[in-house]
Amino acid sequence: MSGAPVSAGAIERDWRTPLELTVLGAIWGCSFLFMRVAVPSFGPYALVEVRLLLGALVLLPFLWQARAQFPARRWLWLVPIGLINSAIPFVLFAWAAQRAPAAIGAICNAMTVLFAALIAFLFFGEKIGMRRAIALLVGFGGVVVLATAKVSGLSIGAAVIAGSLAALLYGLGVNLVKRHMTGLPPAASAGATLGSAALLMLPMALTHWPDAPIPAVSWACAIALGVVCTGFAFLMFYRLIARIGPARASTVTYLVPMFGALFAWLFLGEPVTWAMVVAGALILGSVAASQKR
After folding, report:
1. Could you tell me which residues come within 8 angstroms of residue 3 by beta carbon, excluding any fewer than 6 positions away?
2. Which value, to the nearest 10 degrees, does the dihedral of the CA atoms of residues 224, 159, 111, 241 take?
3. Which position has the higher pLDDT, 199 or 288?
4. What is the distance between the alpha carbons of residues 278 and 83, in angstroms, rounded to a whole number?
5. What is the tens place of the pLDDT at every residue in 250-278?
6. Shortest CA distance to 136 belongs to which of 116, 113, 114, 120?
7. What are phi and psi of 150, to 5 degrees?
8. What is the dihedral of CA 75, 76, 80, 85, to 10 degrees?
9. 92 — pLDDT class (breaks 50, 70, 90)
10. Count of Cβ atoms closer than 10 Å to residue 145 Cβ
């Protein structure tokens, strides 16, 4: 409007950012569909091991390139962060996927932003403010609505609790990453934490590996979960953070439940109930309010 010329780079970024956010939201929404299909054949531990290992392999070149920045003392934090931010939440979401529709885990995942703010307030001395406090209460209200609902006559409370615990661990992981991994190359750091988590999960995966042959469709979903939804998705997310900042990149949180529910409905025929819609609206509305400046 001022008459100043707009650079070609600015025009490119204008359309590229929403497109990449949408693609990333769709990829992470797919992850709950893939878990729902694959976990009955693999079980939670074996499926998560495949996911972690493949995701780490995708990011291994970045870790190798930056290996000089990862001395032994760094691993004292990288290993527990891998457990808190990847291994245990992945297992909880996979366990929930055995017991509830894919959309349930996707909706619970949106609580990560609220849990991150709560943990920063309780343990790291960050201010939370009245708006965020109210947003937390509204978001937890959404979890209660979801936990007390039934889908096709079955209670999903245990799955909602597992998904919420996973989001709580993600929230803790966000704070630990911010305080102990600042200055490290993000893609290399993700490779380090995923690789550490894969090593920690290996004994459980071996002792719980299924005896029956795993169908090809389950293998395909597990491979897609590790390579696309973990390895390549991390690369996309960190690329977005570098270009538009963490606050704008985190808006992908709003898209994941929508795509998770849509794909589960389209490909698995899972119902989308009014309780899911109300709970999703409460949780996502509270996340949006907590992010508003």
Report:
1. none
2. -10
3. 199
4. 32
5. 778 888 888 999 999 999 999 888 888 89
6. 114
7. -130, 145
8. -50
9. very high
10. 20
pTM: 0.88
For the residues of 47-82, what is the DSSP string, one character each? HHHHHHHHHHHHHHHHHHHTGGG--GGGHHHHHHHH
Q: How far is CA 256 from CA 58, 112, 151, 169, 263, in A?
A: 22, 12, 20, 18, 11
Q: How many Å apart are CA 285 and CA 60, to the nearest integer? A: 37
DSSP string of 161-186?
A: HHHHHHHHHHHHHHHHHHHHSTTS-H
Measured in whole angstroms, the distance separating CA 214 from the mean position of its chain's CA atoms is: 25
Output the DSSP codes for 211-225.
SSPPPHHHHHHHHHH
Q: How far apart are CA 145 and CA 157, in angstroms?
A: 10
Using alpha carbons, list the distances in angstroms from residue 163 to 74, 109, 243. Answer: 29, 7, 30
Contacts of 291 (CB under 8 A, 6+ apart): 113, 247, 250, 251
Query: How far apart (Å, rounded) are the C-alpha atoms in residues 230 and 220?
Result: 14
